[in-house]
Design goal:
Layout (H helix, E strand, L loop, with lengths): L3 H26 L3 H7 L4 H9 L18 H12 L3 H20 L2 H13 L4 E4 L15 E5 L2 E12 L6 E7 L11 E7 L4 E6 L10 E12 L11 H37 L1 E2 L2 E2 L4 H29 L5 H25 L11 H13 L4 H15 L3
Parallel strand pairs: 1-4
Antiparallel strand pairs: 2-3, 3-7, 4-5, 6-7, 8-9
Helix pairs in contact: 1-4, 4-5, 4-7, 4-8, 5-6, 5-7, 7-8, 7-9, 7-10, 8-9, 9-10, 9-11
The structure holds flavin-adenine dinucleotide.
The site of flavin-adenine dinucleotide has 21 residues, from strand 1, strand 3, helix 10 and helix 11.
């Protein structure tokens, strides 16, 4: 049973971690964001620092070499990082969604083999689901794995896969039985490390979310050992991916909270400096209305993210809570970025100010980890299921 002493200890530990993150962001990240983002350059040195801080293992339990943070603390870490540079939160987040599939669905041997390497950041990666003709409708994927002795041979292509150029592996969703009905019974998930036949064909250009690599991939008779089939059983791939999505949605929601917070912070500061008609613009009611809405959105987003993260930490079903947090916090990011831009006038349209980046980064959050159209459908279905008439 948890005692008050344990609780205080956890609280101190979390505060120390959040303080260390703030120092790291101030000295190692903020001074370099503009240059790296504008050059679309991978932040290799920042990644080395993140490895040292243990961030690649922040939610992996200590017994497998991670920091073992609660989801609530992890969400706070992600929001802080995203309030300075959203791209680097993606380098950890997609990696941890991959790690979570092993943690939740892997065999004990897979956990012992892979999780310590994931936690140290020695082996980094992401998730390979999307194909040119299948995003929301994942059951339509065509990448195929065929068993040959103690290996599977994989052929097909993926697109929009983050961390695939600079990372070393992916949780890769494939079809092991394309004829299966229902279709998801023919889907499986593998941890695929780079090797012959695993080819990055193109790094994609993006509106925002720069510096982090998102690519097209080709699998050409790529051979993966059969013991890399997650859970050791075929046909559970989609279920394994979906079970990781609650966590994925909480962390995208936390990114939204970060971008919404950054937009508010910059708007509050700028509106006190810029003067029109003899007074700072923050004294005009039109600007105050915007600040009032932006601040309220940030606090509401924070509460939704915390509630979803706490439900996840208690082991409760939280697809509705995670969906609400994801939907609201990411729309808050987009709305606050636009309002922040308006408050900056022409300067908001210039890369000299960070708001231009928030405005380009925010839309990804509306799309990734289940589009916000899908989130509202999931919320509605849960409302109907939980409260039958
Ligand atoms: C920068 C970036 C990074 C990404 N990183 C990754 C990654 O690391 N790994 C990965 O696997 N994928 C990644 N993706 C892909 C992303 O997950 C997909 O784009 C997303 O799932 C949506 O799929 P889609 O683009 O095919 O859109 P579609 O599925 O074609 O959807 C198009 C539109 O139709 C709507 N729609 C679809 N079905 C329904 C429905 N049933 N009811 C109502 N509306 C519907 C959608 O909401 C959307 O508005 C990334 C994308 C971007 C932009």
């Amino acid at each position: 049973m948890a005692t008050d002493h344990d609780h205080d200890h956890d609280h101190d530990h979390d505060t120390q971690i959040l303080d260390a993150i703030d120092r790291f962001l101030k000295t190692e990240v903020r001074p370099h964001v503009k240059r790296l983002e504008q050059a679309d350059e991978y932040p290799a040195e920042i990644v080395e620092q993140m490895k040292k801080m243990g961030l690649f293992g922040c939610i992996i339990p200590a017994e497998y070499g991670g920091l073992g943070l609660s989801t609530a603390t992890y969400a706070a870490v992600v929001a802080r990082i995203a309030s300075v540079w959203m791209s680097i939160s993606g380098i950890i987040n997609s990696h941890l969604i991959m790690a979570a599939t092993v943690l939740r669905s892997g065999t004990e041997a897979q956990k012992r083999d892979l999780l310590p390497r994931f936690a140290s950041g020695e082996l980094r990666g992401g998730i390979g689901l999307t194909e040119a003709d299948a995003g929301t409708d994942l059951q339509a994927i065509r990448t195929r794995a065929v068993r040959e002795g103690d290996h599977y041979v994989i052929n097909g292509s993926k697109t929009w896969i983050t961390n695939s150029l600079h990372g070393g592996c992916l949780a890769l969703l494939v079809k092991t039985d394309p004829q299966a009905e229902p279709r998801h019974k023919g889907m499986s998930l593998f941890i695929t490390e780079k090797g012959p036949g695993f080819v990055v064909t193109r790094k994609l250009k993006k509106l925002g979310y720069r510096g982090i690599d998102t690519c097209e991939l080709q699998f050409d008779n790529y051979r993966v050992p059969a013991d890399r089939l997650i859970g050791g059983v075929e046909g559970r791939g989609l279920q394994q991916v979906l079970s990781g999505l609650e966590l994925g949605r909480i962390n995208v929601a936390a990114r939204g909270l970060g971008v919404a917070t950054a937009s508010l912070r910059d708007a509050v500061a700028y509106s006190q400096q810029r003067k029109t008609f003899g007074k700072p613009i923050c004294e005009h009611q039109a600007i105050q209305l915007k600040l009032g809405e932006m601040g309220t959105r940030v606090e509401a987003a924070r509460l939704l993210v915390e509630a979803a993260a706490r439900a996840y930490d208690r082991g409760e079903r939280c697809d509705m809570e995670a969906g609400m947090a994801k939907y609201f916090a990411t729309e808050a990011a987009m709305d606050n970025a636009l309002e922040c831009m308006r408050i900056h006038g022409a300067y908001g349209y210039s890369p000299e100010f960070d708001v231009e980046r928030y405005y380009r980064d925010a839309p990804l959050l509306l799309i990734g980890e289940g589009t916000n159209e899908m989130q509202r459908l999931i919320i509605a279905r849960q409302l109907i299921q939980r409260y039958p008439a």
